[in-house]
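Hi there. Long-time user, first ticket. I'm pasting a complex I've been working with (about 854 residues overall). I'd like to know whether the download I got is complete or cut off, because the file seemed smaller than I expected. Thanks.
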Amino acid sequence: MTIGSMLGDIVNSFFRKPVTEKYPFVRSETPDDLRGKVVWNPETCTGCGLCVKDCPSDALELFTLDRAAKRYVMLYHMDACTFCSQCEVSCRSKSITLSNDQWELASTSRTPFDIYYGREEDVAKVLETASQEKTEPDPEGCE
Amino acid sequence: MNHSIPPIVELLLFPGGLVLLASGLLYEFVDRKLVARFQNRIGPRWFQPLADVIKLLAKEEVIPAGVVKGLFVFLPIVAVTAILTAALYVPMFGLKPAFSYPGDLVVTVYLLSLMTLCTGLAGANTEDRFSLVGATRALTQMFSYEAPFLLALLGPAIALGTWNIGEINAAAHNNLWFIIAQPFGFIAAVIGLMGKLELPPFDAPEAETEIVAGALTEYSGRGLALFRIGRDVELVIGLTLIASFYLGGLASPLDFLWKTLILLLVTAALQSLFARLRIDQTVGLWWRMGSIMVLLQLLVIVIGKLIAPLFPFLSGG
Amino acid sequence: MMGAENKPEKFVVSIGPQHPALKEPGHFEFAVEGEIVTSATARLGFVHRGMEKGTESRTWVQNLYLMERVCGICSAVHAMAYAQGVEKLAKVEIPPRARAIRELVAELERVHSHLLWLGVAAHEGGFDTLFMLSWRDRETVMDLLETITGNRVNYSANVLGGVKIDIDDTKSAAILKGMDFLEQRTKHYMKVVTEDETFLGRTRNIGAMTLEQALRLGSVGPTGRASGVPYDVRVDAPYAAYQDFPVSIVTDTAGDLEARFVVRIKELYETYRVIRELVEHMPAGELTARIPRRIPEGEVISRVEAPRGELLYFLKSNGSDMPERIKVRTPSLCNWGSILATAVGHKLADMPMILAGIDPCFSCNDRMIVVNRGSDQSLWTWEDLRQYGIEYYK
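Hi, the file is complete. Here it is re-exported in full:
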């Protein structure tokens, strides 16, 4: 029976630096396998759409601009993404990966969370069609 | 009263009033910081207790249904008043006490326990389960910790033959430090203080994980701020009393500072070492161990006084 | 203060749904006389999220991630139980390396869960230093899991057909180093828990449950094993790689709170040993096996040992790519009966520690339970359920 069995601990802790990391002034290194933001490579994508089908939170959308020439645009809803990496596993051509250094993704508005991946001209075309559709009055009125 | 500071300044500013409140907040900060460092954390910054008080004062005070309204509002004010009055008799900051007369030791200890009584009444006033259980525990703990605390403070008083805090302070400086001459009394005084202040491990009356906040559960806003300030100032006054009695008197502000801070270090270490004792364990422990320790100590002192005339080279206890 | 002393008035102290003692909402009512508890009741259901219904509109692959989020602390075992069940339905054998990695992640999660529980139970008993320091040491295993799987919670290491992560030499070295550090700290905590006078005053002979009581009330996991129930799914029905890397069962006879602490810490020793073995003798091979998208028809039960006890999954497939029914029975649900029965006669101050002693996980708990009150219908359709809800709240 001891009284004060943690005495060694508290004396030790008193003379050590606190273990609290003073984020954001000090950032520890992220491991290589960290599951951060999804990054898509349009050049290698075959358009199979397995990533879209397998995503548990429907965070990916694939727009087909030209099937034969393999021109696609991907819309990534980062706010719906759970960073589970199932898309990375399902992809047969290794076009989709989760980055390991982009993980500070908080923002104060909704706009940075809809990310369009693809070649610039393709993305511009997709955005144009999207805004044209939007000029018709939307009965739901959301977004 | 023997000084050049006009009494009104003394009452409102220094060493009473604002400086006393500020020192209470400062000591709370040091206490929390020490406990955090013992647990390997960073702890709050220096203005955290002040920020807490300002935040509480800015919040709306909710008076729950079923309380006696006047009592609800009045009790925190009485508690803080009692504590601030008690500071007038104690050698705060190493200066002579503002008022001094024979027997003020008893008055001071009574005023300090008035705060616990107010807490208990505040808890009994509401209809909330948690407050009622907390009030019961607070009053039970008060019964078990007040008596040994007073007896422990009486040790040096009897040894020096006076009941006047100011005189005890001055005389303790000239004698062997009572921590060495009366070690049991010192231990009883420190643990008694922790029990009075409901510091862990004796915080059963305000056990956060069992009864939310104990007797003060229903308080918010100004009432809670006043109770907290009262507790902090009680901490300072208690430490000052123990330092002046057992650590050889307080002769100057610097003396006051380092002696009370050493005591605070010891108290903070005791706070982090133990699990919370159940209310029946706190009472059982202290009614047995504490009272026996203190009574033994008093016996030794009385015997010492009786045989002291036979040994003229022994001065004091 | 509490009514006339002669009247047998019940003074009810309710803990929850919002209470500092509870990490998640749950409602407990204790009738007290002074400080002694005379009766205890519980009401759960505050964290019901409708997950079992949600699985019916998602594919098998998507459900893996939904089931992982049933609980935050034991998420890997939920995913593992689900994946095992699906593989059994599809009659697919996963390669040995995948099985070993599954066991590794599950055991690392057990370490994290037990250390978390140690801190939380210490906090309930007012011992904040043990709480802070054990959580500081838990950061080691959280960082290890982040290095291996990519996330500190919700590891997503399992896929249908195997695992998606691999262990290489740097990771193995990091795991071994972490285990050495944790073992040394765990030995220290064992000493604190079994020898510290104030802590023993809060845990010894509190909430004692005899073996007969434990068997009758159906306790599982470390709560049951602390009373001597010799049941551990890893030993009695080995899954994953437990045939090749077995664990021994840890039991105690005292059945009180101290025994529950001791059992969990001894399980930690076993876990460190098994993790070291796994890392040093990891079988080579592939990580996944091919699994079809449409799972053949059938019903299967998949059992694993979560850190809290036996976790049971019932999966029913109708041949399509979406499940027909998934039922989850979590261990915390079985253990509630044990505290409500043993809480009577203890002091009110012991209640939070007794509640924390079974390691409750409320999010796991809240599945839908229907008590048949006289109606003979055993299958409820969605319409029946809606009607019942409307009637209930009228």
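A couple of notes from our side: Strands of chain C lie at 11-15, 27-33, 36-43, 158-159, 162-163, 298-306, 309-317, 323-329. Confidence is low (pLDDT under 50) at residues 1-8 of chain C.
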